[in-house]
Amino acid sequence: MSKANRQQQDVPHSQALVIDDLTVAYNSKPAIWDIDLNVPEGVLMGIVGPNGAGKSTLIKASLNLIPRAAGTVRYYGKPYDQARSLVGYVPQRGSVDWDFPTSVVDVVMMGLYGKLGWFRRPGRKERELAMYALEQVSMQDFAERQISQLSGGQQQRTFLARALVQDAQIYFMDEPFAAVDAVTERAIVAILRELRAQGKTVIVVHHDLQTVEEYFDWVTLLNVEVVASGPTLEVFTADHLQQTYGGRVSYLHEADIALG
Question: Which segments of 85-242 are extended strands (E)?
């Protein structure tokens, strides 16, 4: 890991996201259990854990997309309904109907509906904002293309542009690197780092243990419950990984301790 990646940011004084005692259950079986989480402002955080650990559930419950059995979620001290304009969301690509007949630029402008209201049509200003967001993800040349004609990486860039146009303070991204090419992954990482440099808080569901230390300065290890959460250099340890994955992962840490 490079020296730059080892340098952790000073922990900001403001808590962007505070979760207390959050539990979500499906058919009486907990998907996430008694989650307590404090995420400082201005960090790039990865949520890491095995399949079925509740990573996507944690994000969806935080955004009121699924019901909670218990617990509270606060954004800068406010519930989601009062802080909606502060929050951007990039869902998993598989959850979207990409055959829906609409263009790339129209999808991006949908990110502005929260500020416009559903009954006000976007105009020239909104289109300019959408085009600027597409430029940030190198998709401006595809603005009028139907989304059904996009590759997987182009779809992901489009959804990222839709989140960027919201100009949020906190971004949730559910597996943004899944099934994208290396060029797209590098482009997304660069955008996430730029958001962090602007003081934004970015929370990413991530599955590749090999890149956690390179990409994130903060990490939460999750397996239904939170195993550990904090600065990556403190939390992303062989012991915590073994607690999270139960020996089901083969990962060589810096200390040359193999798990699995």
Answer: 87-90, 170-174, 201-205, 218-223, 225-231
The predicted model scores a pTM of 0.85
Burial, 237: exposed, middle or buried (Cβ in 10 Å; 0-12, 13-18, 19+)? middle
Cα–Cα separations (whole angstroms), residue 13 to 9, 16, 36, 49: 12, 10, 18, 27
Tens digit of each residue's pLDDT (9 = 90 or more) over 14-54? 899 999 999 999 888 899 999 999 999 999 999 999 999 99
Nearest to 18, CA basis, from 42, 36, 43, 41: 36
CA gap 189, 39 in Å, rounded: 19
Of 148, 149, 152, whose CA–CA distance to 175 is shortest? 152
Q: Residue written as tokens 């004609």?
A: 149
**Phi, psi for 35 (deg, rounded to 5):** -80, 125
